[in-house]
Amino acid sequence: MPAAPERRTQEQRRTTTTAAVLSAAAELVVESGVPAVTLARVGERAGYSRGIVTHHFGSKQALLEALAKASQGGFVPGVAECAPGLDRLVRLIKGYLTELGRDGVRGRAFLVLWAEAATAAGLAGTFRERDESFRAELRADVEAGVRDGTIRADVVPREVAVAVLGQLRGIGLQRLLDPAAVETRGLGPAVADQWRRALSAG
What is the pTM (predicted TM-score) of this model? Predict the structure, then answer.
């Protein structure tokens, strides 16, 4: 007699539901834009009711905030395990552009939301926080590189962080608008090498 299937815990069911809802929301953001996203449409796309979406997230605003955080977290595999410094910074830049080339739905949704945040007060705070977190990560790499002598001492970490983030987001938006015009396979290594040469103390 076959064994009965193992029952999932409440936490496992919640995790599965959350992932499905966030994936559905990302698809709708990319396909139709932020204004077209409703809790009912997200629930329908995910295979649940609007009530389930409301129960898990409470509001469209909270859902979009959760999507922004989930889409950006761990975007570049392996970087979190690297020690801060020039090598990590270069790997992050190259990896970010490589991931853009994969055209993942969540990555594209993040860029749509980020652009929308410029004029949507409800999203602005979330994306200011996400961008500042990214800049802080970049600053830490530059500061570590200055300390260990691999990055020039005259480099200003805050300025590098703003410039790198601006470049990566700008390339991402260009690819979102016209994928054929932005081929990231060769661009990632090239941009990473430019930053290595611009910052290197040696």
Answer: 0.82
